[in-house]
Known about the structure:
By secondary structure, the chain is an alpha+beta fold. The chain is built from five helices and 13 strands. The strands form two sheets. Strands 5, 6, 7, 8, 9, 10, 11, 12 and 13 form a nine-stranded mixed beta sheet that branches. Strands 2-1-3-4 form a four-stranded antiparallel beta sheet, with no helix packed on it. The protein is elongated and about 70 Å long. The protein folds into three domains: 10-49, no CATH class; 57-120 and 202-225, Alpha-Beta Plaits (2-Layer Sandwich), CATH 3.30.70; 125-200, Alpha-Beta Plaits (2-Layer Sandwich), CATH 3.30.70.1560. The structure holds uracil.
Amino acid sequence: MFSEIGMFTRRETADRIRRKLITVNGVTVKKPDEKVNPEKDEIRLNGEVVKYKKYAYILVNKPNGVVSATEDGRDKTVVDLLPPEMKKLGLFPCGRLDKDTVGLVILTNDGVSAHNNLSPKRHVEKKYYFETADEYFDEDITAIENGLTLADGYTTKPCKIEREGKNSGYITLTEGKYHEIKRLFGARKNKITYLKRISFSKITLGDLKEGDWRYLTDDEEFIFTNK
Ligand code: URA
């Protein structure tokens, strides 16, 4: 059914059908429940062919208190930030941010690309802005950058820190262990008080507002699907 192929949101579909803007194989669509095979039929919006995409790639700016999951009995999830009709696309977050971490999360239904981006072998860089409770020093930077052994015995991979202030900076990781940044600073007797992911590979959050979402651009989609 036209309304179920996920090309446009339900509201967009209704609006565009009402304005007679959509055609399938040259015939104007009159109702949202008309049959369509998006992989075979030629769909045009306002005369322009619209390419059907098998998968969706979405970037959200996760606010504090929202969980990186598809469903949660108690808390709002990153999928709940999208319009309700997008639920049926089967989107899930590619990697997790802690409930109190804000910033960039990519949602997709492309399991292979998500898996590739999360694979430790691919070394995808994730950059975060952080603030700490106490001042941190050059020795802390060196120890964290070189990789240190956490309480559970895991030795972290090398990473990069760029100082901003006495208590703030940017850290770029190529892996994503549970609470990794908090544990890295914890191992140096410090505490992360604010954490925001600002980029994932070459995909950046930009000025997207907290709680908002957007589709990845074609270039970003290329980056995400060619890992
Ligand atoms: N490291 C953390 O400690 N928390 C996150 O959410 C991401 C990386």
